[in-house]
Write a structure and sequence with these properties.
single chain, alpha+beta, Beta-Lactamase, 3 domains, 5-stranded antiparallel beta sheet, 15 strands, 47% helix, elongated, disordered N terminus, disordered C terminus
C-alpha cells in the first residue's frame, strides 16, 4: 500500500495481503446500507488485479482528490480522473465513467464515496481489459458466425446442387414415366384397336352369315338413297346383276335395272318418287307386289332414325297359293255340309258353345242359325234337355274320341224328335280336344216303335 505519510515504510502488497485488503474494503463498504459485502467476490476481483495489474486498479482517496492508497502503486491520478472524482460527492456519491488517462489510454472507472469517512474508493480498468472478454467472445462469435455462414453457404450450395440434380433426376424420371405411360397407352390403344378390329370382323362375319342365310331378301339404303347392304337372297330373288346391284348403287339405278329386266312396269321416276315418299313418312309400311312372272313378294319397309331405310322382301307365292287352296277347300267343305240332309252341329270343346250348324240343323231345331252361334245348350233348351246334352258332351270328352247313341228323344221348337246320333271329338296334334262334332239322323215313327 502507498500512503501519504513519509514516516511509514511503503511496501508493495503481496498475495498474502489479499485477505486484509478484502476485509478493509468490506469494513469500508459495510457502512453503506445499500451494499452487501461479498468476500469471495472481492477476493476474486483483487486476485485478478494482483495476477494481471493491467486489468484494473484500486484507489482510496480523500474527498478533495488526494490519493491515500492505490494498487498497483501510483503517486498521482490523471487530471481527468481526479477532476471527475472531485465532482462525485456533488452528484450521487457513486458513479461510472469513461476517462482518458495520462498515457492516453481510455479507462472505465467506478467510484463510491464512503458514507462515514471522508474518502472515496475507486476501481478502474482499461477499456481493452474490460472489453477483452467481450472481444474474445465477439471474436469467437464472429468466427462461429463466419463458420455458420460458410456452413450455410456450403449447405445451400450442396442443396442447390442436390436440387438441380434432383430436378434433373425428377425430369428424367418424369420423362421415363411419361415415356412408359405413352408406351403403355400406345400398347393399350393398339391392343384395344386389334380387339375391336377382331370383334368387328367377327361381327361382320356373323352379320354376313346371318344375311346370307336369311329366307328374305334384304336391302339397306342410306339417307342419300344409296345402297349400304344387299344380301345374295335379294339378288337371286329378282335375278339381278351383282355388277349393278352392290353397295354404292343408287336407288334409282336399282329401279331402272329392275325395269330393264322386266320385273316392273311403269315410269321409273314415278316409282322412285312414290317409294321415297313412303320412306320420308318415317313410319313402317308393308306392301304385296305381284311380279310379271306371277310371283307374289311381300315387302316390309322400316325407315331409320338417321335417314334411309331397311327393306325385307319375302316371296310369299306358295303361302298365298296355300291360302287360296285352303279357302277353296273350306268353301267346298261348307258347301258339302250345307248339302248333307243329316243334322250337323259343331261345338267348342272347352266352352261347349255352338260354332257351326248346317241348313238341316236349322230346320231340325227350328232355330235361326244366328240365334245358336256362340251360345250353350242351357241358353237354348229346357233345363232337362240341356242337362242331357251336356252329360253326353262330357261323356264324349272322357271317351277315346267317338260316341254312338241309339234312338233317343230330343227336344226342338218343332216338338220332340227321335234321333240316332254319332258324336266325334276332334283333337289337335297333342291330343287335346278342340271341337265336338255331332251328326244326327232322325228315326221314323215305325222304326222307333220297332
Amino acid at each position: 500500500m502507498q500512503t501519504v505519510s513519509e514516516k511509514v515504510v511503503i511496501e508493495p502488497a503481496t498475495e498474502a495481503d489479499l485477505d486484509e485488503l478484502s476485509e478493509m474494503l468490506g469494513g469500508l463498504f459495510a457502512q453503506e446500507s445499500d451494499f452487501r459485502p461479498d468476500k469471495d467476490k472481492q477476493l476474486r476481483g483483487l486476485r485478478l488485479i494482483f495476477e494481471q495489474p493491467s486489468r484494473g486498479r484500486v484507489f482510496v482517496l480523500r474527498r478533495d482528490g488526494a490519493l491515500l492508497a492505490s494498487y498497483p502503486p501510483k503517486h498521482q491520478l490523471a487530471p481527468s480522473e481526479a477532476g471527475w472524482l472531485k465532482t462525485l460527492p456533488d452528484r450521487s456519491d457513486q458513479g461510472l465513467a469513461r476517462i482518458v488517462g495520462a498515457d492516453g489510454e481510455e479507462r472505465l472507472v467506478a467510484a463510491r464515496a464512503v458514507t462515514h469517512y471522508p474518502m472515496i474508493v475507486s476501481i478502474g480498468t482499461t477499456m481493452a481489459a474490460a472489453l477483452q472478454g467481450w472481444r474474445s467472445q465477439a471474436f469467437y462469435l464472429g468466427v462461429a458466425a463466419t463458420f455458420a455462414v460458410l456452413m450455410i453457404g456450403g449447405i445451400t450450395f450442396v442443396a442447390i446442387r442436390h436440387f438441380r440434380n434432383y430436378t434433373v433426376l425428377a425430369h428424367e424420371r418424369r420423362e421415363r414415366t411419361e415415356a412408359s405411360v405413352r408406351h403403355k397407352a400406345t400398347e393399350f390403344i393398339l391392343r384395344e384397336t386389334e380387339r375391336v378390329r377382331q370383334l368387328l370382323t367377327k361381327q361382320k362375319v356373323q352379320l354376313d352369315a346371318a344375311l346370307e342365310n336369311m329366307s328374305q331378301g334384304l336391302i339397306m339404303l342410306d339417307a342419300n338413297a344409296r345402297m349400304l347392304i344387299c344380301n345374295q337372297r335379294y339378288i337371286d330373288m329378282y335375278g339381278l346383276s351383282p355388277e349393278i346391284v352392290k353397295p354404292g348403287c343408287t336407288f334409282r339405278e336399282l329401279i331402272k335395272h329392275q325395269a330393264k329386266i322386266g320385273l316392273i312396269d311403269g315410269d321409273v321416276d314415278e316409282i322412285v318418287e312414290r317409294i321415297q315418299a313412303a320412306i320420308a313418312q318415317g313410319s313402317p309400311s308393308s306392301d304385296l307386289r305381284t311380279l310379271a312372272d306371277g310371283r307374289m313378294i311381300s315387302v316390309s319397309l322400316h325407315p331409320m332414325g338417321e335417314g334411309g331405310c331397311v327393306a325385307t322382301h319375302q316371296d310369299v307365292t306358295e303361302q298365298h297359293r296355300a291360302l287360296r287352296d285352303t279357302a277353296r277347300a273350306q268353301k267346298f267343305l261348307l258347301t258339302v255340309i250345307e248339302s248333307v240332309p243329316s243334322t250337323i252341329v259343331v261345338k267348342d270343346a272347352r266352352t261347349l258353345k255352338y260354332l257351326l250348324m248346317n241348313r238341316a240343323a236349322e230346320k231340325f231345331y227350328g232355330f235361326v242359325r244366328a240365334e245358336m252361334m256362340g251360345r250353350t245348350s242351357h241358353d237354348l233348351f229346357p233345363k232337362e234337355t240341356a242337362a242331357m246334352i251336356v252329360a253326353y258332351d262330357k261323356k264324349l270328352l272322357e271317351s277315346s274320341g267317338q260316341l254312338n247313341l241309339g234312338a233317343h228323344s230330343v227336344w226342338t221348337l218343332n216338338g220332340p224328335r227321335v234321333v240316332t246320333s254319332r258324336q266325334v271329338a276332334i283333337r289337335d296334334e297333342s291330343g287335346r280336344p278342340m271341337f265336338l262334332l255331332n251328326i244326327m239322323e232322325e228315326v221314323s215313327e215305325h222304326k222307333a216303335v220297332a
